[in-house]
Design brief:
about 150 residues, alpha+beta, 7-stranded antiparallel sheet, about 30% helix
């Protein structure tokens, strides 16, 4: 039993060491990672967000798409444009950003997802190799495989 508790404590310690603290500073429209303002953001509306480096160069554009069916949610998806890499990811896997109707929490979870996948580092830099891996893992090519009449 003691070994089981020790193993659990070590696993939790390792997980916590890799976790980054992400918060929105709504007053300054910045994203704070581990206590430092790292990115700027603009919440254009509930479905569109832009992320900028601290030099105000837009690096990521996020869009929620309803697939032309605003009252039917089962075909909704998100588009993540990595502007500096000219790479677009379309996915309907909202599990990484869901936050029970709290858009600010969704933005935080989105940044945590990018950090976890190492697409974004804690200084706000985009890793091009990791963007390619992210695209391979999550892109579902929704626009090109959807037939619209």
């Amino acid at each position: 039993m003691r070994n089981l508790l020790l193993t659990g404590a070590l696993l939790l310690t390792g997980w916590a060491a890799n976790a980054q603290n992400v918060a929105l500073d709504k007053k300054n429209n910045t994203i704070v990672i581990d206590g430092a303002a790292t990115l700027k953001y603009t919440k254009i509306n509930m479905a569109n967000w832009s992320f900028y480096d601290m030099n105000e160069h837009e690096i990521v554009f996020f869009k929620l798409a309803d697939n032309g069916t605003p009252s039917y949610r089962d075909d909704d998806y998100m588009i993540i444009n990595f502007l500096t890499e000219n790479t677009k990811v379309e996915t309907n896997d909202f599990s990484h950003i869901q936050a029970a109707f709290n858009i600010n929490k969704s933005i935080e979870k989105f940044v945590v997802w990018l950090l976890k996948e190492k697409v974004l580092d804690n200084k706000g830099n985009i890793n091009p190799d990791k963007v390619a891996t992210f695209h391979s893992k999550y892109d579902q090519n929704i626009t090109n495989r959807t037939i619209k009449h």
